[in-house]
Design goal:
heterotrimer; A mainly alpha (about 290); B mainly alpha (about 325); C alpha/beta (about 325); A: about 290 residues; mainly alpha; MetI-like fold; 12 helices; elongated; B: about 325 residues; 2 domains; about 75% helix
Chain lengths: ~290, ~325, ~325
């Protein structure tokens, strides 16, 4: 198995983009996951157009309304339409998830690549990453977000700190495998500078595992944002992130469970879609990884 | 074996040193003066100054770190500003609650997850496999705190069969303890079950395709015997790895779930400290949780060596 | 003449996915105490033949037709579990790669004892004593200590001896050995072959020995079945294979054989390659590589034609070529 994996890696860059795409499109998880994520994305992008009400509009007359033909998902204790809040929540949650993916992708890659490519820095950097990973990710994110102060940007920073170390480890592992392979040697012999080798060959080949990891990071970030908001260190209310809506609904779980149920289902759909995408990408891009 | 242990211990100790700096350093992230942040705008400069001295923030940074190390080496994690008591005592007092919750969730996740993964692997490609894997992926996608809330509404409020929250120590009443811990343990376990099931299936599928399984088959042993005596032991390393990861993740999960079910554990202590900026408890709590995590991983490493004779040679 | 212990009749194995055949019209018989060598290049289907007889070919991957009889009992109509029950007790197999064929995390002694306990109903104590005796018989030094070893602690030769012990533990009547010496050092190869021959004599085993190595064939087999691209090319007493090969493929094999004193290596020097599964020529499968091929060779696969007692070859020109 390992021998095959190595063989598989020894001529990786030639796999044409077109062929990879074709394999992805033939993968059931990719199609279903992509469909779910696309729907959530479209909802988030067009929130202003499709939300039936203003998500922040208070309406004392319609407080705690059960779902009906006007308020499909019911209303909360301020009379705010839950459907509209969930639609706008998709936007905030996707922004936080997307920004976390970008930050983690950037810093995780940077840290992992430096550790993998510059031997003397490897041990110190990776021990520091180990230390960061010794804290449960959710607790680390919670603490950092709380200490920095509740804001969307701080949530993104906190989630990135919590997810970057593992990403760095994955990138480093890819770099370590690839840098020993023949085509990097060949590039070196041809006189490419160290920096160009690093960027061109190694990163292009570490891309598969990285994309897979970042897809999962997106899912983790959506789940973690919700948990942070629930504890009260997420994006400050009244902004309707998925987590904020659930946190608001908590006190009314008994009389108005819909406030909590619907944003939770929205999280499940989004995260399920991302996990399906991640599984498909893993199958196609990174056959070495199992789970 | 001894060399293996020594190396792992040395590695863990190095990481622990870094972990303790990070735990302490969380206070450096505070925008502005931590003492002022704790006391809020209403405090007099005098009060702020007194708290700064109490927290040791008036001393040079290097001095603070040295003092922190000399304290934690004695097992003293400092004094809570809010509770005006030792952080170590507060944690120790609440530890059994959290450990029992996390422990039961871990057992649940591992037993159900490994069983589901084994079923899926032996029925590879069949509808049972697809159903188990779909269920596992779905479980992975549920926010655990939300699941906790839903469980409360269904089983505590609607059906009224279990309490909505709180904690009964087993010393007081065993049935009360089981009843109080059932819902939070399930809420925590569902996600991790899915994770373990996926890992177990993948590991077993790999093992079952290997030559020695064919040898076992050529002996005419039953499928169950082959699965349990040849398949599973060889899949244990990845299962152990994932169990270690899950144990760490469960520690984080208890922090949130204790909040949902009003369980007075270490997690709730830390959340309370986080929300009130009680820095000594945050620092001590972080260090403590990381210490538990590192210990678990060290145990997992030792288990590797027990499970796989080849590891001892490395 | 004693009744054959193993009788394979018109065996066909095809890929379940594409329907392409891996083995076609293979028939053979094997008597108690007899050693039949199955020889062929890689891709000839010889390992598939072995696995099929054992019932170890995954049913999801391959479709099987034809008959396999062991001691007069038809195996192909058995349920998977009933076939499983014949394995170990009635027939056993030795694999090529003794490193991967043994469970890496189980002590080798236990890998032997579990056969004795589960397949012969022995108690743990009896199994241990029997395993020790068997280790002694296969000339493993310090058997009591070696029982507690893990596979990675043993040399390749020792591991293959363990493998032989496992195969013989439940006292099967048929032993299938698939390239049992290929993965071993040359000096060890001879020892293992000697051991196999002695054990076979001693126990009156029917031995089906799969190999690509004509040296092995010369050393210990009574009869030889030459397999080419999934079909029987020639079947003959071992002596005749060397003295009077009838099939052009057998001749080519012999011609490509390195000097007896040289290293035994893979057969590579016949021009061209074995046709791949699913891309078989319509006629004789060897025709594209055969220097004697004529018109009829290209249209239909030739049947086995007897050329002497117990000697037959699947070649239309059997009589002409001498």
């Amino acid at each position: 198995m390992t021998a095959e994996a190595v063989l598989d890696l020894s001529h990786p860059p030639s796999k044409p983009f077109r062929e990879t795409l074709a394999r992805l499109l033939g993968h059931r998880s990719f199609v279903i996951g992509g469909f779910l994520v696309l729907i959530v994305l479209i909802i988030a992008l067009t929130a202003d157009l499709i939300a039936p009400f203003d998500p922040l509009r208070n309406a004392a007359r319609v407080r705690l309304r059960a779902p009906d033909s006007v308020y499909w998902f019911g209303t909360d204790h301020f009379g705010r339409d839950i459907l509209s809040r969930v639609i706008h929540g998709a936007r905030i949650s996707l922004i936080i998830g997307g920004a976390t993916v970008l930050m983690t992708g950037l810093f995780g890659t940077l840290i992992g690549a430096v550790a993998g490519f510059f031997r003397p820095l490897d041990n110190p950097i990776m021990r520091l990453m180990d230390a960061l990973m010794a804290f449960p990710a959710i607790l680390l994110a919670l603490t950092v977000a709380a200490v920095l102060g509740a804001s969307v940007v701080n949530v993104i920073i906190a989630l990135s700190i919590a997810t970057a170390p593992h990403t760095a480890r994955i990138v480093r592992a890819s770099v370590l495998v690839i840098r020993e392979l023949e085509f990097v040697e060949a590039a070196r012999a041809l006189g490419a500078s160290e920096a160009r080798i690093l960027l061109r060959h190694v990163l292009v080949n570490a891309l598969g595992p990285l994309i897979v990891r970042l897809t999962y990071v997106f899912a983790i970030a959506i789940l973690a944002e919700a948990a942070l908001s629930f504890i009260g260190v997420g994006p400050p209310p009244p902004a309707p992130s998925f987590g904020n809506i659930i946190a608001n609904g908590r006190d009314f779980m008994v009389v108005a469970p819909w406030i909590t149920i619907f944003p939770g289902l929205a999280i499940i759909v989004t995260v399920l879609g991302l996990n399906l995408l991640g599984d498909a990408l893993r199958d196609v891009l990174d056959p070495r990884m199992k789970v | 074996m001894l060399g293996f242990l020594t190396r792992r211990l040395a590695g863990a100790f190095l990481v622990l040193l870094l972990v303790s700096v990070l735990s302490f350093g969380i206070i450096w992230l505070v925008p502005g003066d931590p003492a002022a942040v704790f006391l809020d705008a209403g405090a007099t400069p005098d009060q702020v100054e007194r708290l700064r001295r109490e927290l040791g923030l008036d001393k040079p940074l290097a001095m603070q770190v040295v003092e922190w190390y000399s304290r934690i080496l004695k097992g003293d994690l400092g004094r809570s500003i809010l509770l005006s008591r030792g952080v170590t005592e507060a944690i120790i007092e609440r530890l059994p609650v959290t450990l029992s919750l996390a422990g039961i969730s871990l057992v649940l996740s591992v037993v159900a997850g490994v069983a589901a993964g084994m079923v899926a692997a032996t029925k590879h490609g069949q509808p049972v496999d697809q159903a188990v894997m779909a269920g596992a992926l779905f479980g992975l996608s549920i926010p655990e705190f939300w699941l906790g809330l839903v469980l409360i509404v269904v089983f505590a409020v609607q059906l009224g069969v279990l309490p909505t929250g709180g904690f009964v120590p087993p010393t007081e009443s065993i049935t009360g303890w089981i009843r109080s811990i059932t819902l939070p343990a399930i809420a925590l376990a569902v996600v991790h079950m899915g994770f373990i099931a996926r890992m177990t299936r993948a590991a077993l599928l790999e093992v079952l395709s290997q030559d020695f399984i064919r040898t076992a088959d050529s002996k005419g042993l039953t499928r169950l015997h082959i699965l349990l005596r040849h398949g599973l032991p060889n899949a244990l390393i990845p299962i152990l790895t994932v169990t270690g990861i899950v144990a760490g993740s469960l520690l984080g999960g208890t922090v949130i779930i204790e909040q949902v079910f009003s369980i007075p554990g270490v997690g709730r202590l830390i959340i309370g400290a986080i929300l009130s900026r009680d820095f000594p408890v945050i620092q001590g709590g972080l260090l403590f949780v990381a210490l538990v995590y590192l210990t678990i991983n060290l145990l997992v490493d030792i288990c590797y060596a027990i499970v796989d004779p080849r590891v001892r040679l490395e | 003449m004693p009744a054959p212990l193993l009788r394979v009749d018109g065996l066909e194995v095809a890929l379940a996915s594409t329907g392409a055949t891996i083995i076609e019209e293979v028939s053979l018989s094997l008597e108690p105490g007899e050693t039949l060598g199955v020889v062929g290049e890689s891709g000839s289907g010889k390992s598939v033949l072995a696995l099929t007889v054992m019932g170890l070919l995954p049913r999801a991957l391959a479709r099987t037709r034809g008959n396999i009889q062991l001691g007069g009992d038809e195996l192909t109509t058995l349920s998977p579990d009933a076939w499983r029950d014949r394995r170990g007790r009635d027939m056993a197999m030795i694999f090529q790669e003794p490193m991967t064929a043994l469970n890496p995390v189980m002590r080798v002694g236990h890998q032997v004892e579990e056969v004795l306990m589960n397949r012969r109903g022995m108690s743990a104590g009896d199994a241990r004593r029997r395993a020790t005796a068997l280790f002694e018989r296969v000339e493993i030094p310090e058997p009591a200590r070696r029982l507690a070893a893990f596979p990675h602690e043993l040399s390749g030769g020792m591991r293959q001896r363990v493998m032989i012990t496992i195969a013989l533990a439940a006292e099967p009547r048929l032993l299938i050995a698939d390239e049992p010496t290929t993965a071993l050092d040359v000096t060890i190869q001879a020892q293992i072959l000697d051991l196999l021959r002695d054990l076979q004599k001693e126990r009156g085993l029917a031995l089906l020995l799969i190999t690509h190595d004509l040296g092995v064939i010369a050393e210990i087999t009574d009869r030889v079945l030459v397999l080419y691209a999934g079909r029987v090319a020639e079947v003959a007493p071992a002596r005749l294979i060397f003295d009077a090969p009838a099939h052009p493929y057998t001749r080519a094999l012999l011609a490509s054989r390195p000097a007896l004193t040289g290293p035994r290596d893979r057969l590579v020097s016949i021009e061209g390659a074995v046709p791949s599964v699913g891309a078989m020529p319509p006629g004789c499968r060897f025709a594209p590589r055969c220097s004697f091929a004529i018109g009829p060779c290209m249209t239909a696969p030739p049947a086995l034609i007897a050329c002497a007692e117990r000697h037959a070859a699947a070649c239309v020109r059997v009589g002409e070529l001498g």
